[in-house]
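Technical note accompanying the year-one report. For the benefit of new consortium partners, we illustrate the data format agreed upon in the data management plan: each record pairs a sequence with a structure-token string. No post-processing was applied to the example shown here.
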Amino acid sequence: DAANEKVVSISGSSDTILARSEKGEIFIWGQCEYGQAGLGIHDVQLSCSRHIPFPAGKISSAASTTSSCLVSTENGEAYVWGVGLLGLGPTMQKLDRPVLMDPPLFGNEKVVKVYAGNTSFGSLNSKGRLFIWGQNRYGLLGLEHGKDQYFPFEIFFPYDVKHVSLGPDHSLFLMK
């Protein structure tokens, strides 16, 4: 599907890869048995990229964990799907299609960039505020506790966050 597309960014963590085109479309390949394809299909493996139609608008940022995906649109909305701690609470841990995350979860501001590690997500809003959620193994989310985070939680820094890297056991926050 992405053969004739100009890909401007790629995100992947272990099993699932997302590519974003300059047209703001996303393509997926790799492991998809948990609904990461966002199409309601559960093929174990997609060996070729597959387009994920997104009627909510152009995608501005995309990120994937080992079993879930998160995108932000040019309108500043965030959508999540797959399996795991999706940021929608402890009972919502499996979605086979993209679901809009409520804007109050991000301080009622537009989401401008999303990040993912193996089992966690992060998002940066238009005011430069960072929100993070997912498995908090070894305190990797930068919270003051080791408990898993089921909803986006704002982390306060003395400087503006410019980039985030979420690993399996650690996080890195680049600030200005």
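Partners are asked to follow this layout when depositing records. The two ends are 38 Å apart (CA to CA).
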